[in-house]
Design brief:
Number of domains: 1
Number of strands: 8
Order of helices and strands: EHEHEEHHEEEE
CATH class: Alpha Beta
Helix content: 10-25%
Structural class: alpha/beta
Strand content: 25-35%
CATH architecture: 3-Layer(aba) Sandwich
CATH topology: Rossmann fold
Shape: globular
C-alpha cells in the first residue's frame, strides 16, 4: 500500500504519475471516491501522461469510453454511477473489456462488485477539509490486498 497527498486538484499531475508508476504492470485500475472527489480528473491526467490526445470525460451515460494514444495503445474508461442492476454491464460486454489485456479504468466499481476480477489496483481518493486529496494505492491479488 502507498499513500500520496495532493494538496490541490490543480496539482494532480504528480499524483497521476505516482499511480502510473505504482500500477505499471497492472491493467485494471479501480477508482473509488465520493462524487466530486476527482476520479475523472485524475483519469484525464493519467490518460494525458500516457499520450492520449482524445478528450477524456466521464462515460456516465455511455458506461464506457475508448481512448487511444499515438503508440496505438487502447484504454477503456468505465463509469458505473448510473447502473441500477449490475447485470446491465453484461450487455456492454464487460468481460471482454476486462480480459482484453488493455488498461481498464473503472469508476463506481462497487456498483458491479460481483463482476470485478480478483486482481486490480485500487485507487482511493478522499477529500480533506482543505480540499486536498489523500490518495491510497493498493494492489489486490486474488481478492487480497498485497501492498
Amino acid at each position: 500500500m502507498e499513500k500520496y497527498y495532493c494538496p490541490s486538484i490543480r496539482e494532480i499531475h504528480a499524483a497521476a504519475q505516482k499511480i502510473i508508476d505504482f500500477g505499471k504492470f497492472d491493467k485494471i485500475w479501480i477508482f473509488k471516491g465520493d462524487l466530486g472527489a476527482g476520479k475523472t480528473t485524475l483519469i484525464r491526467e493519467i490518460a494525458g501522461i500516457l499520450g492520449v490526445k482524445d478528450r477524456v470525460n466521464s462515460p456516465t451515460f455511455s458506461l464506457v469510453n475508448e481512448y487511444q494514444n499515438a503508440k496505438g495503445e487502447v484504454f477503456y474508461h468505465f463509469d458505473f454511477y448510473r447502473i441500477e442492476d449490475p447485470e446491465e454491464v453484461l450487455e456492454i460486454g464487460l468481460d471482454e473489456y476486462l480480459e482484453s489485456g488493455r488498461h481498464c479504468w473503472i469508476e463506481w466499481a462497487e456498483k458491479i462488485a460481483g463482476y470485478i476480477p480478483d486482481d486490480f489496483i485500487h485507487v482511493l481518493i478522499e477529500v480533506d477539509e482543505k480540499e486536498g486529496r489523500n490518495i491510497t494505492l493498493k494492489r489486490v491479488i486474488n481478492g487480497q490486498t498485497n501492498g
